[in-house]
From TrEMBL:
SUPFAM superfamilies (UniProt xref): (Trans)glycosidases (SSF51445)
One family name in Pfam for this protein: Glyco_hydro_26
Presence of the UniProt keyword Hydrolase in the record: yes
Family statement: Belongs to the glycosyl hydrolase 26 family.
Species whose genome carries this gene: Prosthecobacter vanneervenii
Signal peptide boundaries: 1-21
Residue positions of the active site: 131 (proton donor), 255 (nucleophile)
Listed name of the protein: Beta-mannanase
Length: 317
């Protein structure tokens, strides 16, 4: 997905890697609002398993502490686990500096704050520099920023070491969270020992939606383009699933969204794909921020789409 305000986020999953779920766990993007999470749960008819939150990337003094999100916003989350979007670099910084250790103390402070605000022994998923294969975020290294890839890889490795090095850091799990519609992310892979999960962000953007819409208005064709050997590219959904398997990593959909009244076939295909391929999790973008995918307020506007979603995901299968 393209640039979104700092308070927005994406999702991942918190489940022991050695114990795959019988069904993928479900998450929701809640715009850093617990009430929005509760509203979605009421609409879909079941609790979510995880909630995404995002770390500020404007100033280090805001980046360093997770207390506001973990406690003030989501302090009443109960058993729902938080997943953190954590940029490796922020506005005005660089991977060239990051790889030298210039930001180690900021990372260390944040890692400690996340652990402090998540007591227990469960695993905590981190999405370092998510959608790194795009160029719309300050931390992206896709497109015209490709020359930064070596520094990105070196920085990821250092970031990983800092997070794992704090007391309790063994709880962190790192998601290599890519996006479709951008550069090939595979050359950005930092190495098997530095990644725990392979994930992708998937958004159907038909031309009919206007704005960022660029692809076919046929939801069946749109899905087929994501799983066919002759689809959009080699790093589409099926391609990244194959990449995950080749590296012995679990696969999940960190963000996904659909648009319009005719998206039911896409929703149904996603549900089948997740189950058939043993995906670890999926996270729905129930928001109109950056991508107009909100479903819980569109029962009358998009009845077929909303009914398909609730039929597929509205209860633990």
């Amino acid at each position: 997905m393209f640039f979104r305000p700092v308070f927005l986020a994406s999702l991942a999953l918190l489940l022991p890697l050695c114990t795959p779920a019988a069904e993928p766990l479900m998450g929701v993007f809640g715009e850093n609002s617990m009430q929005r999470v509760l509203n979605f749960e009421k609409w879909v008819g079941r609790p979510v398993d995880v909630i995404l939150c995002t770390i500020d990337f404007q100033k280090w003094e805001n980046y360093r502490y997770a207390s506001w999100l973990s406690q003030t916003v989501y302090g009443q989350r109960g058993d729902r686990r938080l997943v953190y979007d954590v940029p490796i670099i922020i506005q005005g910084t660089s991977y060239a500096e990051a790889k030298t250790g210039a930001y180690d103390e900021h990372w260390k402070c944040l890692a400690g704050s996340i652990l402090e605000n998540n007591p227990g022994t469960y695993e905590i998923v981190i999405r370092p520099s998510h959608e790194m294969n795009g160029e719309w975020f300050v931390w992206g290294v896709g497109g015209a920023k490709a020359s930064q890839i070596p520094d990105f890889i070196a920085s990821w490795k250092r970031f990983h070491g800092v997070f794992r090095g704090v007391p309790g850091g063994e709880r962190f799990r790192f998601s290599f969270s890519t996006t479709e519609g951008a550069s090939d992310p595979r050359p950005m892979w930092p190495g098997d020992e530095y990644v725990d999960i392979v994930a992708q962000d998937v958004y159907w953007k038909p031309k009919a939606m206007g704005g960022e819409g660029w692809e076919t208005n046929d939801p069946k064709e749109a899905w087929e383009k994501r799983v066919s050997p002759h689809g959009y590219n080699e790093w589409h959904v099926a391609g990244m699933l194959a990449f995950a398997k080749a590296h012995g990593k679990p696969f999940q959909i960190d963000e996904w969204g659909v648009w319009g009244p005719d998206a039911a076939p896409f929703v149904e295909a996603m549900a089948a794909f997740l189950k058939t391929n043993g995906a670890r999790s999926h996270t729905y973008w129930n928001s109109n921020s950056s991508y107009p995918g909100e479903l819980d307020q569109r029962e009358k506007e998009w009845p077929k789409t909303t009914q398909a979603f609730k039929a597929a995901f509205g209860r633990a299968q």
